Amino acid sequence: MKQIFVGSTQRSKLYAKINKTLLPTRIVLVAIFALLILIPFFFSEKIFKPNGGDLSNIVYVNTGYGTGSAILLGNNQLLTAAHVLEGMSINDKCEIEFRDPKGEKDAVYAEAEILAVGKFWPSHNPEEDYALLHVLHIDASEFAAPCTIGSGDIDPGEQVTIIGYPAGAYSFTQGSVSNVNGGLLGEHFNIKELYAVNASAWHGNSGGALFDSKGQLIGIVTLAGSFEGYDDGQTYALKVSKVKSILNGRGFQLQ
User: What is the pLDDT of residue 195?
Assistant: First the structure.
């Protein structure tokens, strides 16, 4: 049998031909690998920093009576749940912290003044579990990008994210919408202004944000867990579209 020996020149041409043939496949594989790494990063960036800014637009709240979460909007406005501010009144002030979700940058401490509070009674009207605050002494947008309020046009099964500070620790949980018309609480109170979602939340998440898959704010976390002895495993968030309508009617323009 005659053997053919490939010299260095032929070998180089052969390798070049093979590399040229495999190049498109390599490019596709590298692109897929890059997407797998970058998609979660871009999603988190959309939630944390929709318009830029280093610290989270979900802030930690300490009232002296308890702790919770709040949501930064434009014009130094904060949205939170009324029960986070239990024991406080209009014009009272509470401590807030803008934090880095990654823990790499120092927190920024500030004060916020209460501008408006819903007439909330836990056993009667969860649709009034909202409050509006104003950040004092600093321009909050220098540290965190304000959230963008979404239309709230969302269907059951769509993906959502809850961000807040249970027990004072930053928390990011994901799930899906179970009911857009109040769920169990909606039936009990005969209201439709709550989202029921299966994303987990705990004490301290109250006043935090419910984001849709586009990173837009659609709800204020109000409560989770059992209600009158029945635990449906859901977290409930008051629709921001409802809160915006109420506050606009009271002369406050949400940014």
Answer: 96
